[in-house]
């Protein structure tokens, strides 16, 4: 059966991609952020995963409000990035996966998660920036990616509890897949930030640290939060914590925290990194 | 049941069904800015481009005035408005400064202070 190696959380802010394009990783502004990543890359290098399940949200590249899925999953052999309208450079195609992904679709729908299934999907910075961060120089084409997209842009949004359960269903799917693939799971986005309104620039360090602490050993505690709670405590875009919860749902009950990093600010955002290794 | 503000979160408009209805044309126009040709067409004739998408007079005025807070009140979603901001050459700190009435430098300083 396929194996879940562990999970990684990471920010996916477009400005990170732009900074990498401009080789600004060692500038005073960016260094404290990028310093969080060498241990993550070393872990990936040591583990050599075959497949990455990436929880992300689409910020208006593939999905507009005309048809907006609550949960979507990709089953395509390849994914393309495209112009998002404000200057982040499109990056090389992302390699997809067509076997485990369909197995996950079956598992999810059996578990009453009625996914939108995408055989074509343009993937935005929410998915591509983490890949560029993990494999600098955009050397990510060896890894097969299964995108899982969660609505974080328009209320009503799936609850933290529902997102965690989505992850649990995907975890069951991976563990019941006949194969010897090694799978890593990314929870992208977050942590606290708010882009819109008079409250723009809101960041809540104490809440972020509580979320990182709790996600490791007591994720179910976080599933008692509502999306309105997240807006209040983590800012309007702080609901991206839902992608972290989905990632955590895939992992085993007990995990080992191998690495943690937290930095404020990157762009308008608090950026958190975790590497959690599965214990079974 | 449905309520377009987070009652207890000042300075925050909840982008929900009613707001998505109100802002549909505005957001659809901003979504079009993913295409370079659309960005160019807007720059050539801003008011005419707004009319093609059927923006209300309030939405159109807010676009022409670059009034981000008014755009949010008129049903704009920050994710699509970000594409409008990009077209104007503004980043999210610039947009934050516009919405909070701060200078960009003061807004950036506020973000740094949040980490202390």
Give a description of the structure.
- The complex is a heterodimer of chains A (280) and B (116).
- Chain A is globular and about 45 Å long.
- The two termini of chain A are 13 Å apart.
- In chain A, the strands form two sheets. Chain A has an eight-stranded mixed sheet, with helices on both faces. A two-stranded antiparallel ribbon of chain A has the order 4-5.
- Helix content of chain A is 34%, strand content 22%.
- The mean pLDDT of chain A is 96.
- In chain A, helix 4 crosses helix 6 and helix 6 packs parallel to helix 10.
- Chain A has one domain: LigB-like (Protocatechuate 4,5-dioxygenase, Chain B, 3-Layer(aba) Sandwich).
- Chain A has 280 residues and is an alpha/beta fold.
- Chain B has 116 residues and is mostly helical.
- Chain B has a domain of 72 residues: Protocatechuate 4,5-dioxygenase, Chain A (Orthogonal Bundle).
- Helices cover 66% and strands 0% of the residues of chain B.
- Chain B contains nine helices and no strands.
- The model of chain B has no long low-confidence stretch (mean pLDDT 93).
- At the A-B interface, helix 9 and strand 9 of A face helix 2, helix 7, helix 8 and helix 9 of B.
